[in-house]
Amino acid sequence: MKVALIVEWLDAWRGGAETSTGQFVNHLLDLGVDLEIYTRSKPEGSPGVKVHTIECDGISRSWGTIEFCRKADEAVRQGGSDLVHALAPSMVADIYQPRGGTYAETLRRNVATRRTCLTRAGKRLGIMFNPKQQRLLRLERRMLLRNDPPLVIAISDYVIQQLKTHYGFPDACMEKVYNGVDPDSSDESRGMEDRRLVRDRHKIDTDAFLVLMVAHNLKLKGIRPWIDALTLLHSGGCSLTSLVVGKDKTGKWERVVQKRDLKSAIRFVGPRDDISAYFHAADLLVHPTFYDPCSRVVLEGLAHRVPCITTRYDGAAESVKQGETGYVLDDPEDIAKLADYVKMVRNGSLKRQSREKAASSGAGISMRRHAEEVVAIYRKLTERKNK
Predict the structure, then answer these.
(1) Which helix (H) or strand (E) holds 187?
(2) Helix or strand or coil: residue 285?
């Protein structure tokens, strides 16, 4: 079974989706899939996989994605694969897996990050007159509403809801394969050493309550609600320290923090390669996101046994057991509720799960399980094609 995988980027530094895709590819290869990848990235050689780099040189950044989709389809048509699995819009795909959710929902939730009716209206107008975004919307609509649509693999119930809401997509053309992450393989001593090293690096007391936020798109992932909640907590005398990890620009948010006299409470530490160590060091993960089809960071937090707070606009909320492994906000703008949940964890309402309990519950969110379910779909579609 030869599978062509269309994925625009594979570079882990770009974010969680790319990191997840890299792990997914490794598991597919380990499961014996004959894989050819069509991508804009130029990864180092990997045994067992042939990579076709699609050059989009000379194309503006705003139009690069659209040009990649067109060129990838052309290249795949000549490749002779048994199945085409696309993570980007494709008119030749047998399987479409929108790891970022639908473009329609992505744009709708980006509007929600604006605080006032006026700024939301302005954002809607900007989307209406943005040629790249409109063309991507048309490409997605054309692919999903054609007479012979691809089978769509949804990584959460939230993505299934998006497909139904925006496109009336039929259940018969969808399969849910819940997102996954590789498990935390560190032993207890490694976790304790990481906790000490990270706290020493940032001069945080051993017994201080440490709240972690990890995001590359800070605005979309809820940095403003988190700073607002932290302001409320700080004024109420709730003692804690927060580290924000990610590669996004932070100047605007650092100015807000300084204006509110929160510099001792929250620090922006930039991107980190040793993110697992930060999970070991943290007592709580906050992810008050406006949009995430199924956030990798929350699944990683759960895999590291860290209590997590996220929102119903995150597919990973489906894995959070309310009041047991974390809390789910109905609205990322509910600052008071976010602060209350943090105080509850701070006061001992939730603790890290035992490794045994986390291992048993974490099997359902493993990337290996995810890849095995996708391979089962490959086999089913291949058998159907060969009949």
Answers:
(1) none
(2) strand
